[in-house]
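Researcher: For the record, we're logging two predictions in this thread. I'll number them. Prediction 1 follows.
Model: Prediction 1, sequence and structure:
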Amino acid sequence: MIPPRVVLDTNCLVSALIFSRGNFAWLREAWQTRRFVALVSHDTASELLRVLAYPKFKLTRDEREALLADFLPYVETVKIDTKPDGLPDIRDGQDIIFLELAAASRADALVTGDGDIQAIRKQFHVPILTLAEFADWLQAH
């Protein structure tokens, strides 16, 4: 069976990477056991690098690299040459990178806790799921 291909927004990734011993341990385990394939683009990977460097996380360069080593070997990188047409308008323009990736890659789902992305779920052709919904969805697949 082919594992589903999924876009995880940065907040989901950071939660799974930094707080992996808590409520989000299942997510890290799921991508590492290939229950799904996480999709990244140049823009979403850059965003992850930027967020992991936030001072509030107090991560050293070595710690950030170790976290990335727990994620990047398991991803499928999607090259986006042309921005997909027909994407819904979204309040926070910085979130468009996740919609672009989901559309360009023909993802099976986009997982996010972001309210701006959740707000357009009815206007987007890729299912937009919360982490809790994704856990159920993954169980069903």
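Researcher: Logged. Prediction 2.
Model: Prediction 2, sequence and structure:
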Amino acid sequence: MFHYKQIIPLQMGDNVIGRYQKGNPINTAFETVDPSVDLNHCTITVSRDKRGNLRYTLSDNNSNTGTFVGDVELKPRERRIIEDGTLFTLGATSIILHTKEDSED
């Protein structure tokens, strides 16, 4: 399945990611025709570490098809720190985390 490129903006705190459907109350939905992406698939938590740098933590929300970082599936209740350039997969949909931190563009 090929989809068009989308930018999914993240905010501080919990960003619940899933397939867009009218009435779905999650805060970070994206458009896809991939039925293997749950409506409430995973969460990226954005926080700051002790040095004040942004930290991105990925966890699966008990999805039907799992959340993978590279080719490794996250275990139940596992929280994985991801960084700029990390490829993760929801169902058959791949997402790459791109951060703007420390960028002067």
